Inverse folding.
C-alpha cells in the first residue's frame, strides 16, 4: 500500500510543489493549510509521515509538533524558512525527527521522506520481533541491546556496521544494490560515496565469515549488489 503523507503548510504553492513530487514517487498526499486543520488531519487520518511548516496561522508549528507527538510516533519533518528556528527545533524537545530549510530541492525532500519512512518501518519491525532478536544460523543479533553474537561469542560492531548487518538480517535472501544500501543506512547523510558500502561489507565479513573469500553470510551478487543468505 502507498504511504500517506500529510503536508501542513499555509503557502499553497509550496504545498502543491511538495505534493506533486511526492505523488510522482507513489505517495498519497493530503494538504492542510493551517495549524487547526492540520492538527485535526494529523490526529484523525491514517498518516505515515508529516511535513510540518514552522510558521502557520492559528497554531504554530512548534506547538503543533508537541501536540501531535503526544498522540503518535510517526516521523515529523519540520519545514522552516529561518535558520534561527533550527536551534529551537533541536533544543526544545519538540519531538520532531528532522528539519529541512527553505528553499530546498525536491530531490532532497523526497530523499529525507523516504529515509525517515524506512527507519520508522525498521523500528516497528524491531519492536514486533520477539525478544528483539534475529537468528541466522549461528548468528544472533539482539536489536534491543545492539549486540551481535556468533556461535554465542560476542563480536563488537560499529554503529553503521550493526545497522547494515541488522538490515540484511531483517531482509534475508533479498539482493540490495550499493545505492539502495547507502540510502537505507546513510539516508539522511546525503553527501557521501557508495564505496562506503563496500568498505562496511568488507569489515562485517571480517568479523562473521570464516573465509572472507568465500562468504557464507553476506554474498556478492555480481552486477546487482549483496544479500544475506538465511
Amino acid at each position: 500500500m502507498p504511504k500517506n503523507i500529510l503536508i501542513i503548510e499555509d503557502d499553497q504553492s509550496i504545498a502543491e510543489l511538495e505534493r506533486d513530487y511526492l505523488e510522482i514517487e507513489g505517495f498519497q498526499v493530503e494538504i492542510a493549510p493551517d495549524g487547526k486543520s492540520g492538527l485535526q488531519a494529523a490526529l484523525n487520518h491514517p498518516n505515515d509521515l508529516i511535513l510540518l511548516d514552522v510558521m502557520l496561522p492559528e497554531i504554530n508549528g512548534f506547538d503543533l509538533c508537541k501536540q501531535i507527538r503526544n498522540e503518535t510516533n510517526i516521523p515529523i519533518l519540520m519545514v522552516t524558512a529561518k535558520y534561527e528556528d533550527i536551534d529551537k527545533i533541536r533544543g526544545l524537545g519538540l519531538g520532531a525527527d528532522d528539519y529541512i530549510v527553505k528553499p530546498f530541492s525536491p530531490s532532497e525532500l523526497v530523499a529525507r521522506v523516504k529515509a525517515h519512512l524506512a527507519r520508522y518501518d525498521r523500528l516497528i519491525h524491531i519492536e514486533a520481533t520477539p525478544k528483539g532478536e534475529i537468528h541466522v544460523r549461528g548468528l544472533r543479533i539482539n536489536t534491543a541491546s545492539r549486540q551481535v553474537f556468533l556461535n554465542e561469542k560476542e563480536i563488537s560492531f560499529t554503529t553503521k556496521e550493526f545497522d547494515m548487518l541488522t538490515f540484511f538480517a531483517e531482509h534475508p535472501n533479498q539482493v540490495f544494490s550499493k545505492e539502495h544500501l547507502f540510502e537505507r543506512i546513510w539516508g539522511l547523510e546525503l553527501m557521501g560515496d557508495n564505496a562506503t558500502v563496500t568498505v562496511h561489507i568488507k569489515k562485517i565479513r571480517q568479523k562473521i565469515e570464516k573465509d572472507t573469500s568465500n562468504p557464507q553470510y553476506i554474498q556478492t551478487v555480481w552486477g546487482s549488489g549483496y544479500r544475506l543468505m538465511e
User: Anything to note?
Assistant: The mean pLDDT is 86. The radius of gyration is 20 Å. The chain has two domains: 4-125, 134-228.
